[in-house]
Amino acid sequence: MAKKISFTVITGIVFVFLTSLTSKSASQSHGIPDIPSCYVDVTESLSFLIVDENYQFPNVHQNSVIHVFHNAALYWACPEGQFNSPGYNVNGQVANCRGGGFLNGQFQVITHKNLTCTLSDTTRPALTEIYDNPNIRCEGHSRPVEVGYTINREFARVLVICFQMDKGIPLYTKYTITKWARLIPNYRPPPSKYFFSGDLISGDVSHVYSDVKASFENLGFSRHINETYFVQEGRLASSDELLYPFQRDATYNLANVAPQWNTFDESNWWALEQAVVDLVTNGDVGNNATVLTGTLKVSTLNDWKGVPVELYLQDDRFPVPRWFWKLVFFPDLKFGAIFFGYNNIYDKKIKVDAEFLREICHVDILETIRGSWSLDSINNSDQVMGYIYACGLKPEQIIDPLIREIVNNALNEFGTRNVDVFDNSAK
After folding, report:
1. Does the pTM exceed 0.85?
2. What's the burial of 354, exposed, middle or buried (CB within 10 Å: 0-12/13-18/19+)?
3. In the chain, pLDDT over 90 holds for what percent of residues?
4. Contact predicate 161/145, CB 8 Å
5. Rounded Cα–Cα distance for residues 119 and 191 (Å)
6. DSSP secondary structure string for all residues of 337-354
7. Is the preceding peptide bond at 36 cis, omega within 30 degrees of 0?
8. Spatial separation of the C-alpha atoms in residues 213 and 310, rounded to whole Å
9. What residues does the DNA/RNA non-specific endonuclease/pyrophosphatase/phosphodiesterase domain cover (predicted)?
10. What's the rounded Cα separation, in Å, for the pair 197 and 126?
């Protein structure tokens, strides 16, 4: 359990001041002024990591501002880096809000203005992985992995990943997209081709992706890989879907990665990701969306005899997923959908259409929800872009047993069995 900062109420007057935060009119009637809150603008070159006193990444409440009540606290940190001001603890600098300003643990005034965190590219990102949390349910014999940061000896979580150890691939990654996901511009990703690996996955896994051509040659499919069409690291949770730079860095954890055809990743799948973020940030859908993005089945290519051969990048591990999927649920309005993208650029649409309706979902509702979900950029006419489908969060409509189990568990967690597919007001 995360530690919480405790505060001592010194006098009865302070208690009255605290009470005044919940009743402005009452405080004014007694002639006692409101105690100012503290504010942090996330657009002001916020280069350092920031979490609240519960070690959660804080929401933004007023335009681009984090609102901190008097006597509440934040932690500022610069893991494996260096602050530009001396005396600031890179592993978790407490910032207590007192009357409109921040004080450290020694009641000295500190400020976030012009505070910057410089990271070394060789150590970025300084992520932590936590395994086997008994409170996290993972389907399909997968193993829970939490990815985040250690701040003040506590864990600040960014992603929950259900990882299939035997296959070396994530079943899905769970995260939250907030209404403010696009507030911080000019995000600088980690160094080119850098992916973090903790104890779960060997640190040299990235070479599997660099040797994809050799893997396909070993399978007899060298003609399918060239400078135009190739398989690359596809992140389930994308950096575009998260708010803070340190959250975005966490998406480069190798447990969040699965093999994905480049043209699919960069066209229709990217269009789906952007459409979901657009709906959350610009639509009237509440302040956040719960998202599960995952993989399903193994992609195949036919050998010279016409026999389908499953595609693995290394022996029987690191399969090229046949499908990528994205479950999106809006808790404030109780509506959502699950999308499926076909990750094989060599199959014709008539074949994929039949497989979707026979093995995945009884009905494709993509065209029905195009307008309300801002999905106009998805182009299902070109096979190299991949094909996108949609299904309602209705277990009785879902054919694949693993996906049906995941949806059932998600609905139980959401506390609802009646999820609308879309809302026309969310345009």
Report:
1. yes
2. exposed
3. 60
4. yes
5. 11
6. EEEEEE--TTS-HHHHHH
7. no
8. 15
9. 155-396
10. 10
